[in-house]
Each structure stands twice: as structure tokens, then as C-alpha cells.
Amino acid sequence: MIVELRVYHCAPTRLPALLERFRSTTLTFFERYGIRQIGFWTTVVGTDNHALTYLLQWDSMAEREERWSAFQSDPDWIAARTESEREKPIVVRVENSFLAPTDFSALR
Q1: How far is it, in rounded angstroms, from Cα 21 to Cα 27?
Q2: Which residues contact 60 (CB under 8 A, 6 or more apart)?
Q3: Domains and CATH numbers, the chain
Q4: pLDDT tens-digit readout, 9-38
Q5: Residues 6+ away with beta carbon under 8 Å from 26
Q6: What residues are paired with 94 via a beta bridge?
Q7: Is residue 52 a contact partner of residue 10, using CB atoms and an 8 Å limit?
Q8: I want to staple 99 with a disulfide (CB 3.0 to 4.6 A). Which of 3, 28, 37, 44 is the partner?
Q9: Any residues with CB less than 8 A from the CB of 65 and at least 6 apart, and which?
Q10: Burial status of residue 18 (CB atoms within 10 A of its CB: 0-12, 13-18, 19 or more)
Q11: What would the 3-class secondary structure string for the chain be?
Q12: What is the rounded distance in angstroms from the CA atom of residue 17 to the CA atom of residue 36?
């Protein structure tokens, strides 16, 4: 198992728009492409309270590349993302890391 850690840093005041896009649109596409989420978080205390952090679970990097590429190139997703940013951009920067559990991790 590989866990992908993704952090979306939003433009000021745009976090609610990102949360709504995930809630009403993105998760439907994730389901369509078999993208498995572990969870989503916003920052309560930390350096950036305009961020959405989430974890995705993959069986392999090959699975990730196949499913993520299909999702990212879906014309309906591209149209929905473009429409959600019609007024102004939502995400300023995305960070992602790939994590492998240790042999003593509760999540393996």
C-alpha cells in the first residue's frame, strides 16, 4: 500500500469554494475512477488555515498513475473544475508526497 498525502493551498477566502467543489463534484469523479480516500482535513492550528489536506490510498504507483491520469483528463472533470474557478482561481499551490507504512504502522 502507498498513501498519497496532498495539500491544496487556497487563495485567501477560497477554501469554502474548494470544500464545496470536493463535496459536490470531485468525490463523484474519485468514485468513478476508483480513487480511494482515507480522509480530508482542514487546518485548525498551524501555519496555513487556507489549506485542505487529504490522504489517498493506492495499491501501487502504477495504479495511481493510471487512475489519476484518467481522472485528470476526463472532459467532464475539466469542465467542472474550470466552471468552479470562473470567478477566480481557488488553488494557489498543491503539494503531494507518497508514503509507505512501516512494519509497525497500524495502517498497512
Answers
A1: 9
A2: 2
A3: 2-99 (3.30.70.100)
A4: 999 999 999 999 999 999 999 999 999 999
A5: 77
A6: 8
A7: yes
A8: 3
A9: none
A10: buried
A11: CEEEEEEEEECCCCHHHHHHHHHHHHHHHHHHCCCEEEEEEECCCCCCCCEEEEEEEECCHHHHHHHHHHHHCCHHHHHHHHHHCCCCCCEEEEEEEEECCCCCCCCC
A12: 22
**Cell numbers 482535513 label which residue?**
41
The amino acid occupying position 94 is V
What confidence tens digit (pLDDT) does each residue in 62-93 have? 999 999 999 999 999 999 999 999 999 999 99
In the structure grid, which three cell numbers stand for residue 60, read together? 501501487
What is the C-alpha separation between 107 and 39, in angstroms, rounded?
13
